[in-house]
Amino acid sequence: MRFGLGAAAYILGALLSAEAAAGPTVEVLKFEDLRGWEEDDHEAALSVFQDTCIDIENPEWKSLCALATSQPTAKAFFELFFRPVLIGGEEPALFTGYFEPELKGSRSRQGPYRYPIYAKPPEVRNGSLWYSREQIEDQNLLSGRGLEIAWVDDPVDVFFLQIQGSGRVKLSEGGALRVGYAGKNGHEYRSIGQELVRRGVYQPHQVSAQVIQRWVKRNPEAGRDLLQHNPSFVFFREVSEVPASRGPLGAMNRSITKMRSIAVDPAYTTLGAPVWIEKGGAEPLNRLMIAQDTGSAIKGAQRADVFYGTGDQAGRIAGRIKDPGRMVVLMPIQVAFALAPGG
After folding, report:
1. Residues 105 and 151: beta-carbon distance below 8 Å
2. Taking the model in full, what pTM does it have?
3. If exposure means fewest CB atoms within 10 Å of the residue's CB, which of 40, 143, 256, 320 is most exposed?
4. pLDDT at position 203
5. CB atoms closer than 10 angstroms to residue 279
């Protein structure tokens, strides 16, 4: 089998990523192996795919992106030009949910709005280590520097905004502003939910974002210590170019879509790629999603975070998602077979 230079470069990169990740298994499947494939809304998935496929650098993908609107149906497009690839299928999959928080705040510090959302300091370089969350907060390293984008009424909301990576702030003076990820302090994310389990406060099945928020609010001193267990600290920027009718910006700097966008580990899954998910749990989900985002806690070939939308209701749903299943990446045909054993 022969490949162009672009495809060869993509394949080499994918193989190197796989080798660096301790050699996950790779299996090429058939579309009839995907549970629920026939019943999905492929047109909806194609529309989301087109939002970001133009941003995939590899020529193989760009060619497919150009062909996306010339096929008789969306389903035919995916079946004709892609093959389902199961990467790391020997590992149990884990699906969680995320959302865009909606906070109450103000442009200025006033009344209950005393907790800042910070822009990135000029000396912070992405990929380099800076001060930890504990050092930033205990030494007031950011206050008084004009880095405040907005002030909100709850420090726990600020913490979870950093975990989600983006959000909207309803302003007391009227209107709203949207903030998006601008960088971080270089420290690895640590789960405060797992820390509560380790301390014996809760059992694993009891932990959710809402449970953590309530516990921290009931225990302000111990809660501060718990939040500082996560040394990672995220900085934001105001995102004025995204209309309120669209979703927040993902890792590809494009709006993500409720129930069609997922966050993945880019070491295994190309950002912009279609991904078929089969999520179990109380609310099973078989659906074609698009990998348009990343997350510091999203690591591994069989790991995905489903975007559930904006606001409290989306947050309640996303907070209780912790389900098994499997995820299958749709890859261009030549790439799929080149990655398979013996390809």
Report:
1. yes
2. 0.76
3. 143
4. 94
5. 23
